[in-house]
Every structure is written in structure tokens, then in C-alpha cells.
């Protein structure tokens, strides 16, 4: 996993923060699912909340709310806006 | 007969539309090229009967999930005369991708933009005419839930069916990976036809989520809701279930028994205590299944089930399960059968199988009856509550241990990414239809298996005819004697072994079977048990009863839901092994401590 300071991942956002998707570095199955749910490079994504005990994240992209696990969120590279 | 396929992403209200179109008259069936069953219904459109098929919701026609493969194979092997594509109007900006993918297959299509009422509330305006021109496909706005726009949509579907389907060229059918231009095409269509506000208004869903998914309040609210549901099923279900039992008992007395009274005793026994009893066993589950799915429809269709998944995921992920499995596990404490059926919301097969392996350890209300009776007979009133509570702990522990042991064998292959749909309240019609479909499914799939099982146990406990029913001389008694070396180390007597054979059918009849075995009832039976058994034996018997096979109906449901006899046998064998192991450790340890 890249540790370039200019590119954070989805999990590094705090609740209420917004970002732009920079890259989706997942395997094909997850990538296609995320694309179908509206994830696109360059799109705005909002982190709504994180569940307790390192549980899943709730994000909003367009009109869709999606939950995904931390392991998956680490693979979505974003840039805070 | 012409065929219409209903296609769309999950959470588009596709099934609601299907129910509205078919009026709830649907059946499950098999199709060439695919292994799962699909719901279909025959409807009259114009002057022709056509068949409407509800395909599973998919995100991507080229996707890797099981549902996506099913749809791909279905379209390949059963090209429909018309594809009705249902899109969620509020999410049009991303759902269009599926439509454009489908368009490449040159199918005869009509597009229905569902949830038009919600889109309007969001301030999303869609010009269907412009969109229709841009795509070259008829497009209609619709609210399947309330029926607005339904007649127009039906009319368009009827009209579209008049044209012959172009058929799918072989090169199109085999083509799979060509959506490079879909992105730009999406932008082109959306640009002129759809207006979406830059920021969505802070709506009810956001406010509700604020409370329901609150970092501190979320879990207590979740358990509160689960407790209410469980209590609801228990308190409404029990009287309904005993009502059905009384009805069947009354029918037996006034109609069935006189009808067969001329027949030889043995044949009467087979008909009444075997087959009729089997039918009554199936019937007793009907009210509880309807009730369960009325509640499930609320939990699921309101969108709360995915919230529960969100709240419980951190803990359940470690067990290889997800939050929805946990909801089903909890619901299993009411009754295992509908809880197993409820796992169908999980679209990943391995996740479903692992959940179904765990659910039968939930201490259901039928088992509770046995434990209450035995606890009352053998334990002091002040320790009774503790005894029952400890059994609930064993129930959870058995589920957790099973999940931990088997999670490696059922690795979840699908990405865990779930939509959190807006909160919606299902209409009564949707709830009732759901209950009816599930009951139909249960009767259709499980009743034969259950009736055969009941008859089989009746034969074991009544043959040879020279022996008194359920006595040591019957085949069941002989099996009990033969199994004695296995049951002796866990403190279970031959009489109790016969009761366990009865308990295989249903836990509700265990106490009744003890009455037959000892030829005593009520307090006399309690007294006899207290004389014959000590508390260590009784507790060991209860542990075994808790963990081994819940009942025949559960096994029948495991079989019909997994469609795999090997899986059913695995569940059966594992629960027997675990039951014996736990009872053995408990009994031997207690004896070693001199108890």
C-alpha cells in the first residue's frame, strides 16, 4: 500500500469529511461492484460515519449510501477536499 | 407463450413491481442454464397470456457475483421477448450503466424508472421524453409501491410485446467485455435529460440514521428492536400455533377419526398418528412463518436490516458472518425454520450456508417448553431461572464455536459492500404477500419430507405390533438399547433415548412422548422423572436436546434452502457430534467432581 502523504485512503477520513476519489486499487470483483454503486475516479465521496470497534464505514456517493469494511476502504485512494 | 424478464439493480423495487403485475400469483421454477429457481407468474396482457420472470437484482451484467452469473446465463439460454428494466429514479445517475450494458445485447426493452415519488422529493427531475430519444428505448416513470404510472407502464409493455424480438446474435451473446464507451454514453444521456441537485436535502433518512446508527445508542436500540420482534413472534405466535393444533385436534375428533373408525387399528394408527400428525406438524408452522415474515418484511423493507448489519459487522466479521446473519440467529430464538428461510437476503452462497449452519443452535420456543418442564421437575424454583439462562448461554456458545470452526470451509467470496437504502415503510399488501410467498414455499418444499419423517418415527415407536407403543420392545426401544453404550456416558437412560428419537420430529412432542413412555402425565410424570434422574443427568439431557438436531422441519428447511443433501447431513452430523461432546464433558466432569 502506498504511503504517499498526498494520497489518503477512504479509511483515513473522519466522519463528516469529504474527498475526491483518486484511485480504486481493488480486485476486479470489488471494483465492478464499486463502479456499479457509483464510485468513479474524480467523484466526490462523503464519509458519513464509522461503526464502533473498527466496524464498517458509511459513505455517501451521489444519492447512494453505501457501507463497506475497513479492509476494502483502505484500497480506495482519495484526496480530501 | 411470450416471455418478459424483469431486470434491475438491487433496491429498485423490482419485486414490488413483479408482485403488482402478477397480483401475487407466482410460482418458483427451474430454467435451462441456471441452477437457482426463479419466481415467475403468468399474466394476461392485451389478449395474450405472457410469462413474467423476476430475475435476481444485479449491479453489473459482467459482474462476478452468483446473481450476476445467473442473469447472464438466463439471458444466454432463454432470450426473453421483452426485457423490462427497472431503475431506481433517485439513483439514475449510476444505474444507467446497467441499462447501457443491457442495450448492447440488442434486447427488446422497456425502461421503468421506479420510485418516481421519491425522486421528486429529492428534487431530481427527469425528462423521460428526452431520455427516451437519446437512448432509443421507451421510458416511463412509475411508483410500483403506490401504483402511480402503473397502467401507462403496463400499456407500454403490452405494446412493446407486439414487435418481434430481434433475437440475440451469437456474437452478441458471447460478447462479454465491451463497456468501454459506457461512461461517455452515460454522460451524454444524463446531461440533457436529468437534473440532480448538487447537494441532497437533509432528509428523514439522514436524521433517522443519526439516531439508529448513533455510536452509543445504536446497539441498545438494535437489541431493543430485536427483543420486541422476538417477543412479538413469541406472544402472537404461541397462541396461534396452539390454535392451529386445537383446530387439527378438533377436526381429528369430529371428522377424521370417525371416518377411519372402520379400518383395522394399525392402519388407523398410521393414518391418524402418522400421516395426519405429519400434516398437523406442517400446519403448526404456518402461523409462525406468516408472523415471522410480516416482521421480517418490516425490518428488511424499511432498510433497517442493512443498518443492523452496519452495527453488528465489527463483531460478526470475526466469525466469518455478517450482521444480517446475527439478526437471523436472534430470530431463530423464536423459531429456526423461518430464520433459515430468512437467510435468503444474503446473496453470497457461502455466507448463507455458514449462517444456516449456526442458526439451528438458537434455543427456539419449542425447546424452551421441554426445558421449562424438566427444570420445573428437577430443580428448585430459585435455581430454575439460572438453569434456563445457562442453556441460553450454551446456545450462543454452540453457535459461535460452530462459526469459528466452519468459517474456513465457507469462505465468503463476495465483496462486503452493502447499500443503505433510505428508510421506507412497506405497504400492508407487500407484507402480506411476503408472508404468503414464504408459506407457499415452505409447504411446497418441506411438507413431504416432514410427513415422511413423522410416519417413519411413528413406525419406529409402534412396531412390532406386539409391543406396547413407545416401550422398550418397539424398534425405537431396541435402537435405544443398542445405542445405550453411546448414551450411557452422558447419563441418558434408554427411556430418555426414546424421547430423543421422538424429539427428532419436533421438540413440542418430547414432553408428550415422555408421558407415553412412562405412561404417566402431568405432576405424576414430573415425580417419576425426579425419582429416576438426578439433576446432573437431567441437565445433560437438556444440553443434548438443545444442541442435537432442532426438529425435522428445520432439517427439511436446511435441505430445501441449500438444495444439497450433503450439506443437510453435515449439519445433522455436526450437531449430533457437538451435542454428544458437550453433554459428555459436562456429565463426566460433574461426576468426577462427585456431583
Helix and strand succession of chain A? EEHEEEHE
Principal-axes geometry of chain B comes out as elongated
The shape of chain A, in one word, is globular
- Strand residues, percent of chain B: 5-15%
Rg of chain B, please?
Answer: 28 Å
Alpha-beta classification of chain B: alpha/beta
Number of helices of chain B: 26
Catalogue the unreliable spans of chain B: none
* Largest sheet report of chain B: 7 strands, mixed
Average residue-wise pLDDT of chain B: 85
Largest interface: A-B, 30 and 41 residues
* Major β-sheet strand ordering of chain B: 2-3-4-1-5-6-8
- Describe the sheet with the most strands of chain A: 6 strands, antiparallel
Mean pLDDT of chain A: 86
Strand content of chain A: 35-45%
Helix content of chain B: 55-70%
Total number of beta strands of chain A: 6
Q: How are strands sequenced across the largest beta sheet of chain A?
A: 1-6-2-3-4-5
| Number of strand elements of chain B | 10
The first-to-last residue Cα distance of chain B is: 73 Å
Low-confidence stretches of chain A: none
Amino acid at each position: 500500500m502506498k504511503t504517499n502523504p498526498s494520497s489518503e485512503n477512504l479509511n483515513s477520513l473522519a466522519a463528516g469529511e469529504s474527498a475526491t476519489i483518486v484511485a480504486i486499487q481493488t480486485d476486479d470483483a470489488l471494483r465492478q461492484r464499486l463502479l456499479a454503486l457509483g464510485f468513479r475516479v474524480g467523484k466526490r465521496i462523503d464519509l458519513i460515519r464509522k461503526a464502533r470497534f473498527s466496524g464498517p464505514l458509511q459513505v455517501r456517493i451521489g444519492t447512494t449510501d453505501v457501507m463497506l469494511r475497513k479492509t476494502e476502504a483502505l484500497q480506495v485512494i482519495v484526496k480530501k477536499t | 407463450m411470450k416471455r418478459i424478464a424483469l431486470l434491475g439493480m438491487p433496491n429498485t423495487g423490482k419485486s414490488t413491481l413483479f408482485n403488482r403485475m402478477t397480483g401475487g400469483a407466482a410460482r418458483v421454477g427451474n430454467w435451462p442454464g441456471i441452477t437457482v429457481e426463479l419466481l415467475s407468474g403468468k399474466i394476461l396482457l392485451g389478449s395474450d397470456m405472457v410469462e413474467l420472470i423476476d430475475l435476481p437484482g444485479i449491479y453489473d451484467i459482467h459482474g462476478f457475483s452468483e446473481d450476476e452469473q445467473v442473469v447472464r446465463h438466463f439471458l444466454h439460454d432463454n432470450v426473453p421477448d421483452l426485457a423490462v428494466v427497472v431503475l431506481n429514479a433517485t439513483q439514475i445517475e449510476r444505474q444507467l450503466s446497467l441499462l447501457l450494458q443491457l442495450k448492447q445485447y440488442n434486447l427488446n426493452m422497456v425502461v421503468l424508472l421506479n420510485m418516481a415519488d421519491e425522486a421528486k422529493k429529492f428534487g431530481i427531475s427527469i425528462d423521460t421524453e428526452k431520455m427516451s430519444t437519446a437512448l432509443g428505448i421507451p421510458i416511463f416513470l412509475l411508483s410500483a409501491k403506490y401504483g402511480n404510472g402503473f397502467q401507462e407502464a403496463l400499456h407500454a409493455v403490452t405494446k412493446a410485446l407486439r414487435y418481434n424480438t430481434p433475437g440475440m446474435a451469437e456474437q452478441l451473446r458471447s460478447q462479454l467485455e465491451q463497456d468501454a464507451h459506457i461512461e461517455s454514453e452515460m454522460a451524454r444521456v444524463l446531461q440533457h435529460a436529468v437534473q440532480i441537485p448538487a447537494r441532497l436535502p437533509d432528509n428523514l433518512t439522514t436524521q433517522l440514521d443519526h439516531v439508529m446508527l448513533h455510536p452509543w445508542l445504536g446497539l441498545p436500540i438494535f437489541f431493543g428492536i430485536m427483543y420486541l420482534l422476538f417477543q412479538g413472534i413469541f406472544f402472537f405466535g404461541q397462541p396461534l400455533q396452539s390454535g392451529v393444533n386445537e383446530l387439527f385436534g378438533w377436526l381429528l375428533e369430529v371428522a377424521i377419526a370417525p371416518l377411519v373408525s372402520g379400518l383395522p387399528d394399525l392402519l388407523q394408527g398410521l393414518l391418524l398418528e402418522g400421516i395426519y400428525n405429519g400434516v398437523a406438524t406442517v400446519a403448526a408452522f404456518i402461523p409462525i412463518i406468516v408472523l415471522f415474515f410480516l416482521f421480517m418484511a418490516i425490518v428488511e423493507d424499511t432498510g433497517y436490516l442493512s443498518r443492523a448489519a452496519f452495527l453488528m459487522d465489527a463483531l460478526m466479521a470475526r466469525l466469518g458472518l455478517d450482521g444480517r446473519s446475527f439478526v437471523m440467529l436472534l430470530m431463530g430464538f423464536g423459531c429456526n425454520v423461518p430464520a433459515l428461510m430468512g437467510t435468503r437476503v444474503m446473496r453470497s452462497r457461502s455466507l448463507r450456508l455458514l449462517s444456516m449452519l449456526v442458526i439451528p443452535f438458537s434455543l427456539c420456543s419449542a425447546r424452551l417448553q421441554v426445558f421449562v418442564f424438566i427444570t420445573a421437575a428437577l430443580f428448585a424454583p430459585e435455581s430454575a431461572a439460572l438453569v434456563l439462562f445457562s442453556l441460553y448461554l450454551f446456545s450462543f456458545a454452540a453457535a459461535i464455536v460452530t462459526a469459528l470452526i466452519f468459517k474456513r470451509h465457507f469462505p465468503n467470496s463476495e465483496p462486503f459492500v452493502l447499500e443503505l437504502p433510505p428508510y421506507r415503510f412497506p405497504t400492508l399488501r407487500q407484507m402480506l404477500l411476503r408472508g404468503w410467498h414464504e408459506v407457499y414455499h415452505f409447504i411446497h418444499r418441506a411438507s413431504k419430507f416432514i410427513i415422511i419423517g413423522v410416519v417413519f418415527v411413528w413406525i419406529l415407536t409402534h412396531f412390532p405390533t406386539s409391543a406396547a407403543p413407545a416401550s422398550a420392545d418397539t424398534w425405537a426401544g431396541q435402537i435405544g438399547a443398542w445405542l445405550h453404550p453411546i448414551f450411557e456416558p452422558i447419563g441418558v437412560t434408554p427411556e430418555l433415548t426414546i424421547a430423543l428419537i421422538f424429539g427428532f420430529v419436533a421438540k413440542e412432542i418430547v414432553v408428550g412422548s415422555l408421558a407415553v413412555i412412562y405412561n404417566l402425565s402431568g405432576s405424576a410424570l414430573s415425580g417419576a422423572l425426579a425419582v429416576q434422574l438426578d439433576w446432573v443427568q437431567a441437565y445433560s439431557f437438556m444440553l443434548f436436546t438443545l444442541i442435537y438436531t432442532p426438529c425435522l422441519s428445520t432439517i427439511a428447511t436446511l435441505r430445501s434452502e441449500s438444495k444439497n443433501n450433503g450439506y443437510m447431513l453435515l449439519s445433522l452430523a455436526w450437531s449430533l457430534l457437538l451435542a454428544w461432546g458437550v453433554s459428555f464433558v459436562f456429565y463426566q466432569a460433574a461426576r468426577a467432581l462427585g456431583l
